[in-house]
Please model this.
Amino acid sequence: MQAIRIHEHGSYETLVIDSLPVPEIQPDEVLIKVKTAALNHLDIWVRKGIPGVSLPLTMGSDAAGVIEKTGAVAAQEFAFKKGDEVFGIPIRSCGHCELCLQGKDNLCRDFHIPGESIQGVQAEYIAVPAKYVLLKPNRLSWPETAALPLAAMTAYHMLAPKVQLKSGEWILIYGASSGIGSMAIQIAKALGARVITTAGSAEKLQAAKQLGADYVINYKTQPVGKTVREITSGSGVDVVFEHTGALTWNDSLRALGKGGRLVTCGATTGPQVKIDLRALFIKHQQIIGSTMGTRQDMVDILDLVETGKLKPAVDKVFSFKEIKNAHQYLEDGRPFGKIVLDF
Ligand SMILES: [Zn+2]
Model:
């Protein structure tokens, strides 16, 4: 079978398609014949080199496909069978520590994301523990199914368990066109919030409105913090959804109202920021970190999908053989929504 791998870190030129044996499955695993796999910004970080990555590595965290073979335990305990249409939940944890037993999988000391610290899923066949496999939602196409898990889990975990976004609250969500931003807009609307979002072109602002955003700001021509203050009649937002880091940080703090919560999961434009502690404590604000989500988050997300409240925005589908072009397209920041590979 063929798999997208890297043997060294660097530009998209380091991405290669290798021939590997079809994986053997353990009793608790299923063998999935992959139909679609999604790209995430994580793929770019991994390719360029982050700690904890061992090479060679099969790339990718999100994949969907059809079950080809089922281990004995996977068949008995999870009732999976050959031909089931499924997708993988892009997390692994020990399953037996105190945190795992409390459902806090993403705090487990043995937490992994496929395509980061363990082998990924951008291959024609993958072996996945049945515990991390769910049936494909009927409402979603194959590209949409692959596009869903990592971005939706990250956004949902930030909005629901972490900041507990409430109906009627104001939220600023950066980057409407990013995978995570486009998911967050829909999830925030499903939770009843009033959404302000940002993008860099009239076309993308229009697409953000179609996803449900109430107000849109062109960050290239409008000062974000000041504009948010105007929209909210001076009070600022209850929640800022951050994933960009240094470049947007000052605007984030300016936009955040009294008692507000800023939740962040990324630092695309740089990890070092400044905070005036006096403003933080006088305004009773909270800054909250979050990474990925839990198995339960994924189950909750499927409810939003089944009720038509969440549908991944897919920008473009590439053949997996065009992986270099796909990375380049994502890295240049051109897409609105997710990039998917067709296997
Ligand atoms: Zn654990």
Summary: The mean pLDDT is 96. The chain has twelve helices and 16 strands.
